[in-house]
Amino acid sequence: MREINDLPECDAVAVHEGVTSLAREGVPAPDTLLMLSEFFKIFGDPTRLSILFALDRVPMCVCDIAATLGMTRSAVSHQLKVLRTAQLVSYRREGKNVIYSPSDDHVRDIIEKALEHISE
Amino acid sequence: MREINDLPECDAVAVHEGVTSLAREGVPAPDTLLMLSEFFKIFGDPTRLSILFALDRVPMCVCDIAATLGMTRSAVSHQLKVLRTAQLVSYRREGKNVIYSPSDDHVRDIIEKALEHISE
DNA sequence: CATACAGTTGAACGGTTGTTCACTTGTTGA
DNA sequence: TCAACAAGTGAACAACCGTTCAACTGTATG
Asked: Which nucleotides of strand D lie under 7 Å from a protein CB?
C-alpha cells in the first residue's frame, strides 16, 4: 500500500520512505531562498568582488576605483549601484566626488570563509 | 607636477594621492577572484540552494530531490552536476539510485552568515 | 554663466545560465 | 535478454547579466 509521501515520478517506497517530507522541513520558504540567492549572486562577479576588496583597504571615489581596477567609470558606477542597493557599501558626497566605503562587517567573514573553501 | 599614480581618466591628484596603489594591494589575483566568484555563483540560484538545504537534512536520490522540490529529474540532475563539480555534494550509487549528500561543512557556515545578513 | 570634470543612467549588445525536451546510459528483476 | 525505471546528457530556447556607448545631472572653478 502506498504512503502519503509517494509520488508518481519516483516509486521509491521501499527505499526511501517518508524522506521527502523530512527534507522539505529543511528547505526555507521560497522568498527566503530568493533573498539568499540574490545576496550570493552579488558576490558571484569578479568585478564586484574586486570593488569590495579594494574599498575594504581604503574608501575611494568612483574615479579611483575605476583607475584601481582598470575599468570605465560607467561600469564601476553600474556595479556600485548593485552594491548600494544590497547595502554592502555606503557613500558620501565630497565636492565633485562620491566616496564609497564598505558598510558591513559580515561581508569580510563570508568572503574569508569562501576563501578557506577554495584553498583546498 | 603629476605623480606615478595619476591616470588620464581621473585627475584626482590633489584629492586622493596614492590611493589607488594602496587599494590594489587589497585586491587578490585575477584567478583567485575568478575562483571566488565562481564559488559564490553556485549559491546564487534558489534551486541549488534548496537542494543543499534539503540534502543537509537527509541524503537523497535524484528522484526524491525532484519530488521534494517539485521539479523535473533532469533539472535536478543538471544542477547536481554543478554541485558535484564544485565538490559541494558527494554521491554513491545504490542499485538504480544515486544517493547524494552534502560534502562540506564550510557551506553551512557560509549560508548561515548570509542568513544573518539578510535578516536585517 | 560657462566650462570642465565626477558620477549616474538607459538602451543595446553579446555572453551566460537554468529549464525543458528528447535521447542515451546504466541497473535491476522478470 | 528484455522491460522498466533511475539518472545523466546535449541541444535549444528564453531570461538574465555585465559591459559599452551616449547621453544626462550635479558640483566646483575661472
From this structure: 5-11, 17-23, 26-29
Q: Does any domain span residue B89?
A: yes
Q: What is the pLDDT of residues B28-58, one digit of tens each?
A: 999 999 999 999 999 999 999 999 999 999 9
Q: What is the pLDDT of residues B2-21, one digit of tens each?
A: 333 333 345 544 346 689 99
Candidates A71, A110, A115: best to mutate against B (most CBs of B within 10 A) is A110
Which nucleotides of chain C does any protein CB come within 7 A of? 5-11, 17-23, 26-29
Q: The domain containing residue B54 runs over which residues?
A: 29-119
pTM listed for this prediction: 0.88
CATH number at residue A99: 1.10.10.10
Pairwise CA distance, residues B103 & A28, whole Å: 20
